[in-house]
Amino acid sequence: MTDFAATRAAFHLPDGVTYLDGNSLGPMPVRAAERVAAMMRDEWAEMLITGWNRAGWYVQPRRVGDRIARLIGAGPGEVVMGDTLSIKVFQALSAALTLNPGRRVILSDSGNFPSDLYVAEGLARTVGAELRVVAPEAVAGAIDADLAVLMLTEVDYRTGRRHDMAALTAQAHAAGALTVWDLAHSAGAIDVDLRGADADFAVGCTYKYLNGGPGAPAFIWVHPRHAEAARPCLQGWMGHAAPFAFDPDYTPAPGIERMRVGTPPVIALAALETALEVWDGVGMAELRARSVALTEAFIAGVEAACPGVTLYSPRDPAARGSQVGFRHPQAYAVMQALIAQGVIGDFRAPDVLRFGFAPLYNGMEDVARAVATLSDILRTGSWDRPEYHRRAAVT
Questions:
Q1: Is 113 labeled as catalytic in the residue annotation?
Q2: What CATH code would you report for 283-380?
């Protein structure tokens, strides 16, 4: 049985703060600072370049990837780390297009994270493909015989709406298409099962629910049936079969290793590996049950005590990830007032108050305090102060 009191204690959570923004940036694991310091002191400082072999830096992307694999329903040796999420989206999407010659339509939805759509639009323009974007609820009806790749984020970054990965993947396969799933708001938040859903490619970031720290590296998964055939457009030296042969011609490495691109961010991976140790012994079914309990309690509390807000997320927990959005015409100012009182969520344009519930460290006491604070801010109108309307560079 998962000990959520122990997992909460594994994180540094500042006194007086209720943190409901782990869907943007997870808090720092208590052991991360010392692990990074030790890596710099004992490995980088003392081993210098020999650390690639002696400290295992070179194999670190696969080692860390294996830790993530368990959390997303993948197998050992199927996940590799490195680069940013946008790069991994580009790799997965370009490889999927190459595997489906003769088709040139990429289908996504308007709830997808804009960066994913930017990547898809740029790739489509470059290779002569077409990007079609429909409303989230219209995706199933837009899958047809022209489709090459279905590219979706499983959990909508604003509404928390959760796509049915298994059903949409099956429909795409029946139409002769491949799937690329972005797990940015899924990995570490819900019970993902890539193998069970028979997905083709998946990518995700690690600085949200996986708590790897700002700018932590992304991951990519390729179904084993594609592992020896997938050829991404972006071919880097770490994805070569023999990187240190320095062959001018590219030969892809076996399996998932070909999805490596540049030199791995060793310091960031050290922090991430420490964060992933917190997951040892965590049951994903228990994690999902706790997530549902927290979000259900929050929705009920806000709707009972907070006039003037409207639920933006799906009401059915089965159709929702681990975040809740409420709409308010002055959402930005309301959120700044909440943050000033120690309840940290975030704002998404144009009018969404967004709250992420991370079961590893959030509990019912966080729900109660957030509801009470939001209720007081709305009742008193204390959000309507000039400093709360002033927009910062990052919202």
A1: yes
A2: 3.90.1150.10
